Amino acid sequence: MELDNLTEFKALPELKEKLVKYGIAKAFSEGDIILDDNAHINSIPIVVSGSIRVMRLDDDGREILLYYIKAGESCIMSFLGGMHNDTSKVKAIAEEHCHILFIPIDKVSMLIREYPQWLDYIFRLYHKRFEELLEVVNAVAFKKMDERLLDFIKKKCELIQSHTLIVTHEQLANELGTARVVVSRLLKQMEDLGLVQLGRNKITLVS
């Protein structure tokens, strides 16, 4: 699997070569579960193309979106769990068709010792994920659901680089950790305000 399109590794040909050598390449379709809650972590993923959404489940099985992993990024939760021989505390799902390079945990440790740039890459991702998790906490604690929903739609549109989302109200509710009827009511209000246009399983963000 090629990493040439990922700017994170262009200046590090030796590290890139090792990642390709040790990595296991896999392709996933939209909606595929890449890592399940409580699963044992044997490797960490590097997204080569496409994107992943990372969810947190509560004891009742309800989900809430934590963050997205885009091309060139990895899952810091997988890294931490794998390094401490722990199970996954999150669920990772393919947001769209994606290609992923899985680096075995023992090779991850070896690369940290051999390449300081690899550790720097991990720390930068950790910092970014931490800021995103703070945004989630801030949104849940201080924002009304209509603000969270609109921000969420904007973020998903930015991720896929389109003003139109093909998504059900049920899916949005699951990712926001709320009820479908709440999402449907708020979307109708947004449509009345001219913020979005609604169609069958489709939401268009009005710029």
Commentary on this structure:
- This protein has 207 residues and is α+β, with helices and mostly antiparallel strands.
- It folds into two domains: 8-141, Jelly Rolls; 144-205, Winged helix-like DNA-binding domain superfamily/Winged helix DNA-binding domain (Arc Repressor Mutant, subunit A, Orthogonal Bundle), CATH 1.10.10.10.
- The chain is built from eight helices and ten strands.
- A four-stranded antiparallel β-sheet has the order 2-6-4-5. The chain has a three-stranded antiparallel β-sheet with strand order 1-7-3.
- A hairpin with a 5-residue loop joins strand 4 (51-57) and strand 5 (63-70).
- Helix 4 (105-114) crosses helix 5.
- The longest helix has 27 residues, at 116-142.
- The protein is elongated.
- The mean pLDDT is 87.
Key features of this structure:
single chain; 207 residues; alpha+beta; Jelly Rolls; Arc Repressor Mutant, subunit A; 4-stranded antiparallel sheet; 3-stranded antiparallel sheet; 8 helices; 46% helix
Low-confidence runs (pLDDT<50, min 5 residues)? none
Count of discrete structural domains: 2
- Name of the CATH class of the largest domain: Mainly Beta
Stated plainly, the CATH topology of the largest domain is called: Jelly Rolls
As a whole number of angstroms, the C-alpha radius of gyration is 18 Å
How widely separated are the two ends? 37 Å
Q: Biggest sheet: strands side by side, in what order?
A: 2-6-4-5
The shape is elongated
Largest sheet: 4 strands, antiparallel
Instruction: Please count the beta strands (DSSP E, at least 2 residues each).
Output: 10
